Amino acid sequence: MSTTDNAPLTIRDMIEPAIKAAGGWVNTHAHADRAYTLSPDVLEMRRTCTLQQKWDALDRLKRESTEEDFYRRFSLFFENQIAQGVTALATFVDIDPQSEDRAIMAGLRAREHYQDQLTVKFANQTLKGVIHPEARKWFDIGADLVDIIGALPKRDERDYGKGAEAFDIILSTAKERNKMVHVHVDQFNESLEYETEQLCEKTIEHGMEGRVVAIHGISIGAHSKAYRERLYALMRRAQMMMIACPTAWIDTPRSEELVPMHNSMTPVDEMVPAGITVALGTDNVCDAMVPWNAGDMWHEMTTLATGCRFDYFDELVKIATVNGRKAIGID
């Protein structure tokens, strides 16, 4: 790298002007309604609960949160993002028997307040799934209030063995309402997970090609190279995009499972050459899920580039900007 007075001295000096020129950072995945909720009790939950146990352990926090509590969290998170040069973002919002509609109502108010500085898209988080009647009631309510249909099919697969039915409900709901879909898949970094493949097949079955975005895809790296290549071909058929949130998954617990050597990151280094549109998100910020995450987009990019040995500056800029806008449905 040149060391002349006018030349950039760091990678950041080289990339950030390009991100600004491309319209600014786009954070495609967050949970702003839970941001900045750390406390001694919440940290103890983090230490003692698995991810699946947290789906219910968070109930008390959500029940006790008022609309003003949610509004404050949204506002803090939006200001954090604006300060970094984020110009658009998508955030999931809990709309379920515990949060009811308090979080989304607060989010809509906060979006209006910051609309001159930030484009915000909302997706409904379904920590309770969509199969149980009460959960389904709040899923349907949320589907009318958000911009993007959100989903967590693993919940219904775990509780009822009805993951496939959950996929059908999610995709048919989105198709009826002409909305995009963002789905948490393959989050446990194990070769027993095939959710991205299942989502692709369901996307094609429902005629939703180009309208569905997978989030995380951590377990893809636990499969063989032959399987991964078949999966990428299927993703191209489904025109499926992928959102990577690197910081949220580098703490995945070690396992004794024998699988190909890999880390716990979305395999962006394989997906981009395979023609998959990849975007970037922060996921949870300073909460029970990811207490160490400050919502720093530059940190997310450097973690992704380092963890995947992906040093292609032009592609990283696209992941942070153009691809992000595509993934959340804006020009």
UniProtKB/TrEMBL annotation:
Signal sequence range: none
Pfam families recorded: Amidohydro_1
Residue ranges of every copy of the Amidohydrolase-related domain listed in the record: 46-331
Molecular function terms, GO-annotated: hydrolase activity, acting on carbon-nitrogen (but not peptide) bonds, in cyclic amidines
SUPFAM superfamilies: Metallo-dependent hydrolases
InterPro entries membership: Amidohydro-rel (IPR006680), Metal_Hydrolase (IPR032466), Metallo-hydrolase_Enzymes (IPR052349)
Name of the protein: Amidohydrolase-related domain-containing protein
Native organism taxonomy: Bacteria, Pseudomonadati, Pseudomonadota, Betaproteobacteria, Burkholderiales
